[in-house]
Amino acid sequence: MPAAAFVARLNEQIAYEFAASQQYVAVAVHFDGETLPRLAAFFYAQALEERNHAMMMVQYLLDADAEVTIPGVAAPQTGFDGIVAPVQLALDQEQRVSDQIAALVAVAREHGDFQSEQFMQWFLKEQVEEVSTMSDLLRIVQRAEQDPLRAEEFLARESIGDGGGEDAGAPAAAGGAL
Fold it and tell me: Cα angle vertex 170, ends 118, 58, to 5°?
């Protein structure tokens, strides 16, 4: 059984992951409304990835016979000016999540909850990739701020991030491959 402190913090993290998913949907909708389909698709994929992270955490708690709390979340920001602000918000969010994941690892370690600490290792690695991807995308949209189609062209030509692809080392998500 995971440490009670870890279970409480992981349930909080589930809320953060669902909130991140909704925020990415809002960003994607913004880009869709601006007729920037590549940026929209990128953030729709990010939204699914964040939702799956929450479901991985749910599955871990179910497997560990621990309490699972599916929280409500605050409404995401939906209004943005230009193409830089939403990506900056995304980077800030990923940096905050990285800190939250590190804190979860620390709680597990502090309580000698080695299984939970091991479970969180994949998320530590994932956050390095997430922050790197958003940092790269931010630099791209900053350069293309006056001509957003340059960012679209870049995304059409290049691949950044993992594209939401399957990772054999990823924890199982509740509900399977929904």
Answer: 75
